Amino acid sequence: VHGAIVRPARAEDAGQIALVHVRSWQGAYRGLIPQAFLDGLDVAQRTRTWERALAETDNPRAGVLVADDGRNVVGFVGYFPSRDPDADPDLIGEIGAIYLLPGAWGGGIGRRLMEAALGRLAGAGFTQATLWVLDSNDRARRFYEAGGWSADGAAKQDDSRGFPLSEVRYRRSLSSLS
Ligand SMILES: CC(C)(COP(=O)(O)OP(=O)(O)OC[C@H]1O[C@@H](n2cnc3c(N)ncnc32)[C@H](O)[C@@H]1OP(=O)(O)O)[C@@H](O)C(=O)NCCC(=O)NCCS
């Protein structure tokens, strides 16, 4: 996937974002979360969720950026004010999701999406960013650590999907970006 551009998501991207989301989950989380859940992920249902999310984005403090290779969305990143109870949502921005099609992993697109999202958060006045990652997601943790993030000691278990997901929080400063 060469020459992808990073741009704000449009309402009509919902279906392609949903497809990337489902394919990326199925590729990245195989063996980490129950296979029945991965097999049951439904692009049409996810599309409706993304249609709602794209309609609600609260620019400039929240938004979705996509990597577009000229034909398709190959990755996306979503960001918004932190929802964590210990965080000041005026100062702490969150990277809520960053997902690429499996065929695009390792080619630098994730880094470009991340840098663009962090630039938007810095420009919107946030001083730090946080994100939650599955503790067993080694590829993503290496990617974040290479990008200046470090685990801040917070951990939580998300049971909202009917099975436990153990997540750890990463944090980085945005001061070099503003
Ligand atoms: C995690 C993910 C978004 C990373 O995107 P990517 O395009 O694969 O990553 P990149 O190619 O940009 O980065 C990979 C390389 O650049 C390094 N890198 C990334 N950001 C960097 C930075 N800011 N500075 C220096 N190096 C960096 C990485 O360590 C890695 O190095 P390597 O080639 O030696 O392995 C992508 O792999 C993905 O979609 N994974 C599956 C879904 C997932 O797990 N998402 C995270 C959920 S919390």
Written description of the protein model:
The chain has 178 residues and is α+β, with helices and mostly antiparallel strands. 33% of the residues lie in helices and 30% in strands. It has helices at residues 14-28, 35-40, 43-56, 109-123, 138-146; strands spanning 5-8, 63-68, 73-81, 92-100, 128-134, 150-158, 165-173. The chain has a seven-stranded mixed sheet. α1 (14-28) crosses α3. The protein is globular. The model has no long low-confidence stretch (mean pLDDT 96). Coenzyme A (COA) binds next to α1, β4, α4 and α5. Coenzyme A (COA) is lined by residues 24, 28, 98-100, 105-111, 133, 137, 139-140, 142-143, 146-147.
Summarize the structure.
With 178 residues, the protein is of the alpha+beta class. It has helices at residues 14-28, 35-40, 43-56, 109-123, 138-146; strands at residues 5-8, 63-68, 73-81, 92-100, 128-134, 150-158, 165-173. The model has no long low-confidence stretch (mean pLDDT 96).
Properties at a glance:
178 residues; 5 helices; binds coenzyme A
Calculate the mean pLDDT score and round it.
96
Bound molecules: coenzyme A
- Beta-strand segment tally: 7
Query: Strand fraction band?
Result: 25-35%
Task: Indicate the radius of gyration in whole angstroms.
Answer: 15 Å
* Global structural class: alpha+beta
Order of neighbouring strands in the sheet with most strands: 1-2-3-4-5-7-6
Biggest pleated sheet = 7 strands, mixed
Kindly report how far apart the N and C termini lie: 30 Å
Low-confidence stretches: none
The best one-word shape is: globular
Order of helix and strand elements from N to C terminus: EHHHEEEHEHEE
- Supply the number of helical segments: 5
Helical percent range?
Answer: 25-40%
